[in-house]
Amino acid sequence: MKRTIILFTFTIMSLIAAAQTKEETKIEKLTEKLRASMISGNKVDLEKLVWDNLTYGHSNGKIEDKAAFVEALSTKKSDFKTIELSEIAVTIAGKTAIVRHILRADTNDGGIPGKVNLGIVLVWEKRGDEWKLLARRSFKINY
Questions:
Q1: How far is C-alpha 83 from the geometric centre of its chain's CA atoms?
Q2: Is 11 a residue whose pLDDT tops 90?
């Protein structure tokens, strides 16, 4: 009987761990799709990735809503030439996923080439079966 309980508990714990891993994989894929969409400026993809009540915070303190975020990237007002993500960590708590990572990018905003090194925190929210970006904050880093 003891063995059966231990085996049952182990099986349930394994299923829970596998489910979390599946969700983490989804979030990692969405984060990659966001990275690629920010470079391409594809308006349709950008709009599909974020909730209507998005709050998008820049490292200079500027906050954008969904419309401003999509407009800046799709018109190339905010022009990412490259984006490299590293040190990606995903934490899922219920219907919320938090992604922390480092973003290094080459930009060309207003025709002026630049480089950014940022720490990023993304908040993804699941509604129904769909995950979308709810919030983003960035901060400057010096490495």
A1: 13
A2: no
